[in-house]
Specification:
By secondary structure, this protein is an alpha/beta fold. It has 2 domains: 96 residues, Transcription Elongation Factor S-II, Chain A; 257 residues, 3-Layer(aba) Sandwich (Rossmann fold).
């Protein structure tokens, strides 16, 4: 695939972008310290490796390549080569942020232990009353005309993205929303694809917990009512970004739904049946942990997506992957930016970084006048669809 025409330069972690620089200078070292606090029983060597990583980032040292042995070493070596010698606070933000999480996996020796450093935060979230009340609301959506129920469930799938355990500003807003928080709304177009298209549906997942619950309710509706023959959830190959979903996370959540009883248990039972008969698939892939942009997907994923009815891409990082993590003019049409993609594509994302497209002309300026942090504070959301 070819990148979109007139693609602006990617956001960098230097002084050219305040939010990206703050992420690498302050938020990322804080995440490392939180991992240490959440896992006090890590060995002294792991704690030392974590402290070293934090110190290197705070001192703005050059990003070093990950070590061997590592099953993904060759993939990372190819991705790292153009960035060799760049510092943590002087690089493309997309690469530096994703590479940090891969370094974190190395420091905690994830490939050897399989221990999720964010497991405690994930447990806390799925035990929260807020998750279960939001799930109840989603399950309460009246199963009337398909169009109206799907539009409502897409709303829940969008705003579930606010519950991001790596970003306090968004997390504090919870899973409720106001109508004017949605600043671009193509849900009707997406529903037209779902009801009138052919092929399967794919969701590129983001956060575990509330957001995953909303995605599962949406897929349950699509599969139970035979809207689509098959659906696939694409997840991370290993933990990253604190609350991003992995295959073990999905199975953990299904067990939690079963233990909860009543309607959540019924939901879990339907989903397990769909997993067993192959109508619902889980697809982990290194690409979603990689620093590559969506037009750089490997042939295996291009073949996976090209005959799809709709590909729903969740969350802020994946949105950045879709549009190239660049500061486009906010009124650049979404369809123009993603014309490279081989199937109808939808993005459901609450804004937690500066890059955005697909807004009506003048809206960005009006939002600037009333809220200088609207691009990064997690309040607003977009539902773009080609």
């Amino acid at each position: 695939m070819q990148p979109p025409a007139n693609h602006p330069p990617m956001i960098r972690t230097d002084e050219s972008n305040t939010f990206a620089q703050d992420t690498m200078r302050r938020r990322v070292p804080n995440i490392i310290r939180e991992v240490q606090a959440l896992n006090p029983d890590y060995s002294s060597s792991i704690h030392a490796a974590l402290s070293r990583l934090s110190a290197e980032i705070e001192a703005n040292e050059p990003m070093r390549m990950i070590d061997v042995p590592a099953p993904d070493y060759d993939d990372w070596a190819a991705a790292y080569a153009p960035h060799a010698g760049e510092t943590w606070q002087g690089a493309q933000w997309f690469f530096a942020e994703v590479f940090f999480y891969r370094h974190l996996m190395q420091a905690i020796r994830w490939w050897e232990t399989g221990r999720d450093p964010f497991a405690q935060k994930k447990r806390d979230e799925i035990e929260s009353a807020a998750l279960w009340s939001t799930l109840d609301l989603a399950l309460d959506v009246e199963r009337g005309p398909l169009e109206s129920s799907l539009i409502a469930l897409l709303d829940f799938a969008l705003w579930g993205n606010r519950i991001d355990l790596s970003f306090a500003a968004s997390l504090s807003r919870g899973g409720t929303w106001e109508d004017d928080d949605l600043i671009s709304d193509d849900r009707t177009r997406a529903v037209e694809h779902l009801l009138n298209g052919s092929g399967d549906v794919h969701i590129v997942a983001d956060n575990f917990g509330t957001e995953l619950a909303m995605d599962l309710v949406l897929l349950d509706e699509l599969l139970t009512r035979d809207v689509v023959p098959q659906a696939t959830i694409h997840v991370k190959l290993h933990p990253t970004f604190v609350s991003d979903t992995t295959v073990p996370d999905v199975h953990t959540f299904l067990r939690v739904l079963e233990d909860h009883g009543a309607r959540p248990a019924e939901l879990a039972s339907r989903l397990r049946t769909m997993l067993e008969n192959g109508r619902l698939r889980l697809a982990p892939d290194w690409f979603w942990n990689s620093p590559y942009l969506l037009w750089q997907i490997p042939p295996r994923l291009q073949r996976t997506f090209e005959d799809s009815r709709l590909v729903i891409v969740k969350g802020d990082l994946n949105y950045r992957r879709v549009i190239g993590d660049a500061l486009w003019s906010a009124d650049t049409p979404f369809a123009e930016v993603v014309s490279y993609f081989p199937a109808p594509i939808m993005t459901l994302r609450t804004l937690k970084s500066d890059a955005v497209v697909g807004l009506e002309t003048g809206l960005a300026e009006r939002l600037d006048a009333i809220d200088t942090t609207w691009r990064v504070n997690g309040q607003r959301g977009v539902a773009h669809c080609t």
